[in-house]
Write a structure and sequence with these properties.
By secondary structure, this protein is α+β, with helices and mostly antiparallel strands. Helix content is 18%, strand content 42%.
């Protein structure tokens, strides 16, 4: 210790952080979603993190020693990084919410092409579609799988089946869909009474 060491008396109104736990944390890195209210709280609380008397280098019976200038500069760099993170950004945390499985069945009335909407993404979600399948149980025909934004559709798979009930499969895909986007299967020809099925698999992400 030296004459430049800084000590503070304990007070019930002060929350103290042990410096060693900051430089050698035991907690693992974490991805955390905060509400707006929680962000406001933490932004205001960071003012205490910029004060030297918040940190304990060494506890004594009736007082504690704070970090020296060099160590406190390192702490301030960590605090500045935290403050920057609390200002937020436009990136959404990408994560699994639950499994996506959509199945639609249709019995054709009359003859002609039929477009089936397998799924539409609801508000508050992003869907990742990994698998699309369709089939007509009664006859072979050309299948077209589409990803659509409103009326703007993109053909992502075209397959001509060779027998009744043969599956048209579009797999190993990774289509990212936002609110209002949909997956469709177009059965290019069908007859009255044909039984058709469309399915999609993937996963859902809830958007905060």
């Amino acid at each position: 210790m030296s004459d430049t060491d800084t000590y503070y008396r304990y007070t019930d109104e002060r929350v103290l952080l042990l410096t060693s736990q900051i430089f050698r944390p035991t907690a693992a890195s974490a991805v955390i979603q905060l509400t707006g209210a929680q962000v406001e709280m933490l932004r205001n609380m960071t003012q205490y993190l910029n004060r030297p008397n918040t940190y304990v280098w060494e506890y004594e019976i009736d007082r504690y020693l704070t970090p020296d200038a060099d160590n406190f500069d390192d702490i301030l760099a960590i605090v500045a990084n935290l403050e920057e993170k609390l200002m937020g950004n436009e990136n959404v945390i990408w994560g699994f919410k639950e499994r996506l499985h959509a199945k639609v069945e249709h019995t054709q009335v009359g003859a002609g092409a039929y477009t089936m909407t397998i799924l539409t993404v609801p508000a508050g979600y992003v869907y990742v579609v990994n698998y699309i399948v369709s089939n007509n149980a009664n006859r072979g025909l050309e299948h077209v799988h589409q990803i659509c934004e409103a009326a703007d559709c993109c053909n992502v798979h075209i397959q001509v089946t060779t027998a009744a009930g043969e599956l048209a499969i579009n797999t190993r895909v990774n289509y990212v869909l936002e609110e209002g986007d949909c997956v469709k299967a177009v059965f290019t020809t069908s007859e009255n009474g044909d039984f058709m099925v469309g399915r999609a698999w993937g996963y859902k992400m809830a958007v905060p």
